[in-house]
Amino acid sequence: MTQQSVPLDAPPVLVHPGDKPTRLPRGTTNAVGHTLGLIGDEWNLLILRWAMLGVRRYGGWREVLPISHAVLTRRLASLTEMGVFERVEYQASARRFEYALTKRGRDLWPVLLTIWTWEAQWVPTHVESLPQMVHRTCGRDFSPVFGCGSCGKPAEARDVTGGFGPSGTWNRSVPAATTRRRSASAEGAGMFPETMGLIGNRWSAALLGAAFQGAHRFRDFEHRLGAPPTIISDRLRAFCEIGVFEQTPGTDRPDWPGYHFTQKGRAFFPVIMTAVDWGQRWFRAAEGPALVYTHKNCGQDLKAQLACDQCGAVLRGTEVSVISGTT
Questions:
Q1: Burial 93-120 (b: 16+ CB within 10 A, else e)
Q2: Taking every annotated instance into account, which residue ranges of this chain make up the domain HTH hxlR-type (predicted)?
Q3: pLDDT tens-digit profile of 18-27?
Q4: What is the residue range of 82's domain?
C-alpha cells in the first residue's frame, strides 16, 4: 500500500483566466441549485477527492475508480463547464489533455473535509477507509470545527437564524439534474453512502433544507416544498431510518407526528453551510444571495469558517494535508 499526502489548497498549477464568480441571470437556478448539482453527485465527489490528491489525467481516475468511460467523460465535461477544472493540453502531437483544478475547484476543500468528518463520525461502515486529515500547523490528526468567521466562535445549527434571500426560492434551488441514482459501481467505490442519501436527490436535499429552516410537521414540508405527499412520506421515512430525524408525538394531535433532527442530523449542518458558502461565492445571482444567515451569538452575517479541534487555529487549505492509502 502506498500513501499520498498533499495540501488541499496548494496554488493551482494553472491560473484560469475565467476563474471569477459566475454571474447568474435573473430568475434562473440559484447558487444552491448549482452547488447541489455538483456535490449531490457521488462520482463528482470521488473525482474531486482524487484530484485533490494530484490526479489530473483521464487514465489516473480510471486506475483508482471503477468508473466507466462514458460516466467519467460526462463528469469531467460537466466539472469543466462549471469552472472546477480547466482542460489543458499536455501532449500536442497526440492532442492529449489533462484536467487541472482551478481556484474554484480547490476552494471546495472545506466541503470535502466536512463530508469526510461527518461520515467518519456517524456512518459505521465504509467500503474504503476515509482519508486521514492532518493539520500541518500543529502536526496532529484533526476534525474541523465549524464556526463564524465574523466573531471566530463555533456555530451550530441552533446558533444560526435566517433563510431565503433575494434569489432564494425552492424552485430556483433545485439542481438541473433533478434526481440521481447511485449505480452499483458507485456504491462499490463510494465513501459517502449516507451523504448521498441526504443531498443526492432533489427532494431529499429540499426536505433537509426545510428542516434546517424550521419545518417539523408533515404539512410544513408539504406546504414549503410543494412535493407529492407520497414523496414526502418516503423521504421522512428514509431520514428516520438512517437516524437523521426522530419522530415525536404531535402537539396538536398525537397522530400528527413531528420530525426533529437527532444529534446525527444536526451534525450535518457544517456540510450544508460550507457548501452554501462555496456556492454563493462562485455563483452570484443578479437579485442577490439565495440564502442569508445571521450568527445569533454576535449578530453578524454568518461567514463559514473551519478551525482545528486540536489547536484551535483557523484552517487554511495550504496548512491541511490529506493522507490517503491506495492499493
A1: eeeebbbbbbbbbbbbbbbbbbbbbbbb
A2: 24-127, 189-287
A3: 489 999 999 9
A4: 2-326
- pLDDT(140) > 60: yes
**CATH number for position 11:** 1.10.10.10
Q: Is residue 59 exposed (0-12), middle (13-18) or buried (19+ Cβ within 10 Å)?
A: exposed
Q: Which residue has the cell 429552516?
A: 213
CA separation for the pair 14, 76 (Å, rounded): 17
Q: Tell me the three cell numbers of residue 59.
A: 487514465
The pLDDT confidence band at residue 136, using thresholds 50, 70 and 90, is very high
Q: Count how many domains the chain has.
A: 1
- The radius of gyration of the chain from alpha carbons, rounded to an integer in Å, stands at 20
CB of 147 closer than 8 Å to CB of 28: no
Mean pLDDT value across the chain: 88
Residue 183 has pLDDT above 70, yes or no: no
The answer to whether 27 touches 167, Cβ cutoff 8 Å, is no
Beta partners for residue 162, in sequence order: 293
User: For position 186, what pLDDT does the model report?
Assistant: 52
Spatial separation of the C-alpha atoms in residues 314 and 305, rounded to whole Å: 7
CA distance 272 to 260: 17
Would you say residue 5 has pLDDT above 80?
no
pLDDT of residue 179: 41
Q: What DSSP assignment string belongs to 163-224?
A: EE-TT--TGGGS-SS-B----HHHHHH-S-HHHHHHHSBHHHHHHHHHHHTT--BHHHHHHH
- Could you tell me if 146 and 288 are in contact, meaning their C-beta atoms sit under 8 angstroms apart? no
Average pLDDT on 112-141 reads: 89
Q: Spell out the residues 6+ positions from residue 223 whose beta carbon is closer than 8 angstroms to its own.
A: none
